[in-house]
Design brief:
Layout lengths: L4 E5 L2 E10 L4 E11 L17 H43 L6 H20 L9 H18 L6 H12 L2 H9 L4 H12 L8 H18 L1
Antiparallel strand pairs: 1-2, 2-3
Helix pairs in contact: 4-7
Length: 221
């Protein structure tokens, strides 16, 4: 019995049957059908795979088992090599939009960090020791960041200033809100569009403006 061949061609898996030609005394490959390269198990219903014999379906099942393991390996390898950059980007995004952090998200991140730490230590890569001077500098930086991230209580004068700062961009802000943009995303959009004019915008300032001048107006309509 001739073994079925399976070839990855672009986004398809080709199922190729090898027939023996008695006239030429040679084998001839014939593509019977093809399936998506994302397939990891025999689908139900079979569809085009009905063209395969029971033996060929068994061979396809074995190939898909190998294929699914290979896809999972590639996925994990991509995550492994991307991890440092992703963690750096996550830190940067937190700096832009710390208000979007939830307890559930933070718990998942801490659990993941704890697992990574244990795995690295188990394989001989414990956390590097940091000298006292460096630890002190990091502690100072964290304290300054926490102070900067604290919510600001606005006086009536501050509220009036906030109102005047954002008033010229009122229609754009309303339009972006209608598109489902978050406060952080709106600030980024305005900075891209208006450059230096929008550099003074802050998260707390825009949030206060939206609450006092947009949401209240809509609720009164």
């Amino acid at each position: 019995n001739l073994i079925m061949q399976f070839r990855l061609m672009g986004k398809r898996i080709q199922c190729i049957r090898t027939n023996y030609n008695p006239n030429t005394k040679k084998t001839e490959p014939i593509m019977v059908c093809s399936i998506s390269s994302s397939t990891v198990a025999i689908p139900e219903p079979l569809g085009d795979l009905e063209k395969l014999t029971e033996q060929e379906l068994l061979e396809l099942k074995g190939f898909l088992n190998y294929h699914s393991r290979n896809l999972e390996y590639q996925r994990l390898a991509t995550a492994f090599y991307s991890a440092p950059a992703i963690l750096q980007d996550t830190c940067s995004y937190i700096g832009f939009s710390s208000s979007e952090i939830t307890e559930e998200w933070a718990d998942m991140v801490w659990n993941s960090i704890d697992k990574i730490r244990k795995e690295l230590k188990a394989y001989g890569f414990p956390k590097p020791k940091v000298d006292k001077e460096t630890s002190k500098k990091v502690a100072v930086q964290l304290t300054e960041k926490k102070q900067a991230d604290k919510p600001v209580k606005h006086s009536e004068k501050t509220i009036q200033q906030t109102k005047s700062v954002f008033a010229d961009f009122h229609s754009e802000i309303v339009s972006l809100l209608d598109k489902g943009k978050t406060v952080s995303q709106i600030i980024e959009e305005l900075k891209i569009t208006h450059g230096e004019e929008a550099e003074q915008f802050t998260y707390n300032g825009l949030r206060s403006y939206i609450r006092r001048n947009i949401k209240e107006t809509k609720s009164n309509e």
